[in-house]
Amino acid sequence: MQTLQTKLLILGGGPGGYVAAIRAGQLGIQTTLVEGQALGGTCLNIGCIPSKALIHAAGEFARAQAQASGSSPLGIQVQKPTLDVAQTIAWKDGIVQRLTGGVAALLKRQKVQVVQGWGHIVDGKTVEVRDAQGQATHRIQCEHLLLANGSLPVELPVLPFDGERVISSTQALSPKQLPKKLVVVGGGYIGLELGITYRKLGVEVAVVEAAPRILPAYDAELTRPVQARLQELGITLYLGHQVLGPAQSKGKTVGVEIRPAGAEHEKDKPQVLKADQILVAAGRRPHTEGYGLDGLQLSMKGRAVQVDDQCRTSMKNVWAIGDLTGEPMLAHRAMAQGEMVAEIIAGKTRHFQPAQIPAVCFTDPEVVSVGLSPDEAKAAGHEVLTAQFPFAANGRAMTLEDTSGFVRVVARKDTHRILGWQAVGGHVAELAAAFAQSIEMGAHLEDVAHTIHAHPSLGEAVQEAALRALGQALHV
Ligand code: FAD
Ligand code: NAD
After folding, report:
1. Which residues pair with 256 in a beta bridge?
2. Which of 241, 265, 351, 455 is catalytic?
């Protein structure tokens, strides 16, 4: 067994851990990163990147199919398209490999020592690394321990994962072949991003969601165009339904019993949905077990490790970032926290107090929320001005054949300071940067309304929403 000494030891090479390591290396901090699986973590290997690759591929296939059916208003005609799933997955895997290879190169450039293996916490300053057989390979002593262990999919006790018929997003992102029918449990981020993807690839999809509407984390008005699109795509929705457990099934078919939620339905006969696979996407939980974390007896916040606004845990020089610290479980939050912790360890004064953390759901159409929604702003005690600008009145949206959504701004009525932005529509994920910057910079409606926006662009809808809030809209 090798013994190592380091100043900063990072457990987990996901977006939180690897970004912390890069910045620490840049700042001259001797850094060691321990990763049990692949560099890049959930995000690069089995999360953000592979899901967005498949969403794109499915969108292209669906477009080609629409053109082949002769329904293209653009006059494009193609022969009946076919799909080579193995090639699609190979393309997706190629992107993942390029990115994870890039992370390895960046870490090397910053002289970060990467130790492959599973880190087991001995105490707040010592970690033992074990290989896949459980053999100890390294004992690492550190001054600072940064926990970036990420999260795992929530398993439903009534419907445990078996990796083949009851699957998580990890298997859904690497299918060997597509099922004919898929039941998705959970109409949140993963359930809808992947449910829509599978539907566009030709799979029959049903979504079971416990809440009375899809994407309950976003406001109802914002998710309405997504719900309309699900119907257009032929995805069956069972809203306000709970999953009771597996149903008896024959051969390769798998069944699930569902019933409307609520005591008044407890005597109702359960409905059985049959499928070839069930994707359970009912949330993720911080990864806190199986590597000795409990031995540190850190203060917890629910299932997450509790941290202060510098990502310090309740133990001196033990830090935690990313999904391990709970919601919102987003890659860009993990990265921002990781970068900050490295800078604090290097002696800088930093606090994690962002004015906003953008949330983007890559459904069809896409949904973005940055800062406060109208209801959240009112609940925070603000008198608000809100205004929407529809993409139906935006030239660029028309040329992109997607006019289904809108941009909405929320501002203080007294000062016109912008509190929030929301948008739903094709390609609106790319508007998140402008939204986030305006809020971080404390912009007022006039700042956005009087900025010249390029024509024709979706950004003009952002300007028009601000103009409309001021009663000065030009194009509606
Ligand atoms: P992780 O990325 O989970 O990385 C943790 C790493 O730690 C893992 O590699 C793990 O192997 C390693 N590890 C854990 N314990 C140990 C140990 N004891 N020893 C060694 N290594 C260990 N977020 C977005 O912002 N945008 C998206 O579009 C998006 N899409 C997603 C799609 C899917 C299907 C999923 C599942 C997630 C998605 N997310 C998205 C969420 C995003 O992936 C996470 O928020 C992000 O990866 C969290 O980063 P992290 O560094 O905290 O943890
Ligand atoms: P989620 O919290 O977004 O959605 C889970 C959904 O499942 C909820 O709507 C919930 O009401 C429902 N649900 C829970 N238990 C259920 C049950 N027994 N029966 C029916 N419905 C049930 O979680 P997710 O979709 O699993 O994604 C996990 C996390 O990963 C997200 O919260 C997000 O942080 C991250 N993520 C982000 C993106 C993105 O940024 N675009 C994409 C994918 C994942």
Report:
1. 246, 273
2. 455
Domains and CATH numbers, the chain: 2-47+88-152+285-346 (3.50.50.60), 166-282 (3.50.50.60), 358-470 (3.30.390.30)
Whole-number Å distance between alpha carbons of 365 and 36: 36
Please state the residue numbers annotated as binding site: 52, 119, 186-193, 209, 283, 323, 329-332
DSSP string, 84-147: -HHHHHHHHHHHHHHHHHHHHHHHHHTTPEEEESEEEEEETTEEEEE-TTS-EEEEEEEEEEEE
Residues making up the binding site for FAD: 52, 119, 323, 329-332
Whether 144 is catalytic is no
- Structure confidence at residue 71 as a pLDDT band (50, 70, 90): confident
Dihedral (CA of 262, 263, 268, 273) sign: positive
Closest by Cα among 431, 436, 433 to 464:
431
> What is the Cα Rg of the chain in Å?
24
Per-residue pLDDT tens for 412-460?
999 999 999 999 999 999 999 999 999 999 999 999 999 999 999 999 9
